[in-house]
Amino acid sequence: MTPFEIGLTSFGAMVVMIYAGFWVPFALMLCSYLGVWAIKGSPLLAGKLLALAASETISSYFFGVVPLFVLMGYVVSVTGMGRDAFDVANHMFRRLRGGLGVGTVGANAIFAAITGISIASAAVFTRIAVPEMIRHGYAKRFAVGVVAGSSVLGMLIPPSLLLILYGLLTEQSVGDLFIAGIVPGILLALAFGVGIWLTALLWPARLGPGVAAGRAESDLTPGDLVAKGLPIVALIGLVLGGIYGGFFTPIEAGAVGAGGAILIGVLRRKLSWRDFWQVLTDTGLVTASISFLIIAAQMYSRMLALSGVPTGFGEFVAGADIGYWGVILAYVLLVIVMGAVLDSSSIMLILVPLMLPVVSGMEVDLIWFGIVTVIAVEVGLLTPPFGISVFVIKSALDDPDITLGDIFIGAAPFALMMLVVLALVLAFPVLATGLI
């Protein structure tokens, strides 16, 4: 067998293993090891190559932001700031049918401006919003689906880890990318909110019996709104103000944000030593589970790159006589398909350097291309079999009755809405470039 055939075979075997019930990281690692062994003909060399991939992934400067943002997310959760964001958003949308769902989207949009990473939003709001929505009569599938869907806002609304990575890969201004992500991020949040409202208005049974029974409840006074909203505004101002003011880099914002969240928690007297120890423990557990996913995906991406499968697909797209839009649409489709099995960073590391010479020769606006890439990549966070946001939500859930299938089904409408927003950004590039 040729390396290309081995790569395709390992891809099929990996999908079969995952659907057969194997743990996703195990399936990825096993297929990666056997694939490299078959390509190179040496089990020892395969082990060394994959060990090097794991070491480089964990020691990466970019990876350091994951535990920091997860730490900040858990501190925000324990000190009540995450719940405060949820309460404020719920109060703002309380008069709408499906207000809790819309409020969750709004709270995630606010939280995205603090963290910049989807997995942190997924972990925090799984513990905050899902129990509240279920308590108010929302269906479990919808509750986990709205958290999974709105968690992707963290990768589009600045600061965004993926936009930073794209900027470094393409030598584009990270500041321009952040500005370009504002309008599409707001548009995506509006699409989610309007979609929930229309569903609650036209098909309330799909959201659960609590939607048909009445509206969301909120008894917050103006003073309560100030007390709950001010720490959130302060933390957002610290993170974004420091980035745009040039005081620290977007990656360092994770550490600054975590420190700011801890300080706010101490000043509010809502962060005890016991809570802080639990936060550190939970951060370690979540980071470890995410690490296995990312390491396995990175191993798999190395095996795919070695087999030549991504290069073959990329050369086919670039060499086919399909015109400008044919190349762009084929690229988007390839990104979405790869998003079903690889993590976001691996997709960008494989495809962006491959397609950069092609789109540069076609005089494509690389800022717009970056926003299109990030939206397409983020669709993969909600699609099986990989769907890292879905697995993060499952790991953070305390309800064994909610299966991975329930989360994927609940997230499906949000993935479709993301595709609609992606189509709008493709058709109207000014949505991404208008503010630059």
UniProtKB/TrEMBL annotation:
Pfam families in the cross-refs: DctM
Residue span(s) of domain TRAP C4-dicarboxylate transport system permease DctM subunit: 11-430
GO MF annotations, alphabetized: transmembrane transporter activity
Membrane topology: Multi-pass membrane protein
Record's GO cellular component terms: plasma membrane
Subcellular locations according to the entry: Cell inner membrane
Main location: membrane
Entry's transmembrane regions: 12-39, 60-82, 102-130, 142-166, 178-204, 225-244, 250-267, 279-300, 322-354, 366-387, 407-432
Superkingdom of origin: Bacteria
InterPro entries the record matches: DctM (IPR010656), TRAP_DctM (IPR004681)
Keywords: Cell inner membrane, Cell membrane, Membrane, Transmembrane, Transmembrane helix, Transport
PANTHER family tied to this protein: C4-DICARBOXYLATE TRAP TRANSPORTER LARGE PERMEASE PROTEIN DCTM (PTHR33362:SF5), SIALIC ACID TRAP TRANSPORTER PERMEASE PROTEIN SIAT-RELATED (PTHR33362)
Family: Belongs to the TRAP transporter large permease family.
Record's subunit section: The complex comprises the extracytoplasmic solute receptor protein and the two transmembrane proteins.
Function (record text): Part of the tripartite ATP-independent periplasmic (TRAP) transport system.
NCBIfam families: dctM
Protein name as it appears in the record: TRAP transporter large permease protein
